[in-house]
Amino acid sequence: MTDRKPYRHRFPLSVIGYALRLYHRFPLSQRDVQELLHERGIQVSHETLRQWNIKFAPLLTEELRHREPRRGSRWYLDEVYVEVGGQKHWLWRAVDDDGAVLDILLQEHRDTRAARSFFVRLLGEYDVPEAIHTDKLWSYGTAIRALPVLHGVEHVQVVSAARGNNLVEQSHRPTRQQQRSQLGFKRRQRTHEFLALHARVSNLHRHTRTTVSADRRRRNQTETLRLWREVMQQVA
């Protein structure tokens, strides 16, 4: 990657990309990232980091989404309570049968209208699935019946307490970690932008986990870093 400076930016792409990757890859606050950059001799304020996120997060999310491979044909959906600015919200999440995040949507309600909005959003990006796995929230079934395109799709309902929807429930854990590191979420739009990019970055690093050999993991990490630099170059 050519280490150029984006228009009206004091720091080069390598610094901006490194800071954003740290923030979205690990459960760090902006002040944590500021300290890590300071350790490397880079003096950046946490406000500068915030502005980088506001500018680049939506662009990176979209670019990473376009580069993702074809996803599985079974959807696993779940919703989790998230407090944003002291107000109750619900984070709707869908993953495929391999655990990759398909999409997220932050909404104020947990009803049929919210479920239908999430299904419409998913259908705008992906093919009609073979099966949809959800918990027993009645809103899912009502929303599926309200969308003719989903009438032929198998709807599998599981009991959350039995961990039958474990793929998507496990996918919520990094969100909770980030929420704690940031001492809670403050604004709805910024929260959604952050969580959307966080999900794409999680997908990007899925193959760098310890479930593969050390040599394979290092190769995957190298490829992941190369792709991240390429994406930064594209959006800057």
UniProtKB/TrEMBL annotation:
Q: Which residues form the Integrase catalytic domain?
A: 65-223
For the keyword DNA-binding, the answer is yes
Q: Which domain of life is it from?
A: Bacteria
Task: Note the Pfam families from the entry.
Answer: DDE_Tnp_IS240 (PF13610)
Q: Which GO terms describe its biological process?
A: DNA integration; DNA recombination; transposition
UniProt keyword list: DNA recombination, DNA-binding, Transposition
Q: Name one GO molecular function term.
A: DNA binding
InterPro entries reported for this sequence: DDE_dom, Integrase_cat-core, IS_Transposase, RNaseH-like_sf, RNaseH_sf, Transpos_IS6
Function per UniProt: Involved in the transposition of the insertion sequence.
NCBIfam families, sorted: transpos_IS6
Q: Mind telling me what this protein is named? A: IS6 family transposase
